[in-house]
Amino acid sequence: MTDPFEVYAIRYATVTRRAAENFIGGDAHEAGTTMDYFVWLVRNGSSSYVVDTGFNAAAAERRRRQFLRCPSIGLQALGVDAATAPDVLVTHLHYDHIGNFDLFPAARFHLQDAEMAFATGRHMAHHFFSHSYELDEVLAMVRNVYAGRVMFHAGDHALCPGLSLHLIGGHTAGLQAVRVWTRVGWLVLASDASHYYANMQSGRPFPIVADVKAMVDGWQRLRELVDDPCHIIPGHDPQVMQRYSAPSPDQDGWIVRLDDTPRPV
């Protein structure tokens, strides 16, 4: 096996939501919770990969999110320059996962065939599916295709020893998770295959969904990709910041290292 990868979560924005917004069939009277927004960094001694690119301050204002800092600042704090980063793993094309694509002019974008087909296909005529995409960002990714900067994958794909992409679907037609070999064994960045720990653990899907059956089946697929389900990292859960520690005191509250044993919450 290759040298284990380090894995970091960078928190760049947040918003308060009602419980009914987080679970299909959620009780409108149930106490709400916070939704955090992350990008991730995966690296070892020989390579580094950025997972998703987040959104910017203008998108935060438009969509009424609290913008904390540009994700590129978090990457810089970890020694990675967005301007020269060679590879961005795009879990899907929703606005909060690809909004800062322009900060990565040297990168190749790794994307599922099914995601590009979905984001440019017939279902985008329906607001239910399209409202989580930004047209200009989808068009920009099409331009990147023509520029030869998109690496398409059709299903599961090994990028290098210890790092692979896995088509999950559900939330979108082409959502992919990232499986990483670390010092604590296999870890999976689930992204929006499960927004919160509770979506998967309680069997209650998130309401923004292209295929509920695929979302539910995806939870089992995530479990199969790890040795211990505690190493499945959800896409938006504020508990991630409580379960893991910051690499340094000055990064407390906005960067945590995930290749570790999580603390109970």
Give the class from helix and strand content and strand pairing. Answer: alpha/beta
Order of helices and strands: EEEHEHEHEHHHEEEEEHHEHE
Distance from first to last alpha carbon: 32 Å
Largest sheet: 8 strands, mixed
CATH superfamily of one domain: Ribonuclease Z/Hydroxyacylglutathione hydrolase-like
Morphology: globular
CATH domain class name of one domain? Alpha Beta
Q: If helices are DSSP runs of H or I spanning 4 or more residues, what is the number of helices? A: 9
What is the number of E strands? 13
Q: Over all CA atoms, what is the radius of gyration?
A: 17 Å
CATH hierarchy: architecture of one domain? 4-Layer Sandwich
What is the CATH topology descriptor of one domain?
Metallo-beta-lactamase, Chain A
Q: Percentage of helical residues?
A: 10-25%
Strand content: 25-35%
Mean pLDDT, nearest integer? 95
Which spans of ≥5 residues are poorly predicted at pLDDT below 50?
none
Can you tell me about this structure?
This protein is of the alpha/beta class. The protein is built from nine helices and 13 strands. Strands 1, 2, 3, 4, 5, 6, 7 and 13 form an eight-stranded mixed β-sheet that branches. It has a five-stranded mixed β-sheet with strand order 8-9-10-11-12, with no helix packed on it. The longest helix has 13 residues. It is globular, with a radius of gyration of 17 Å. The relative contact order is 0.17.
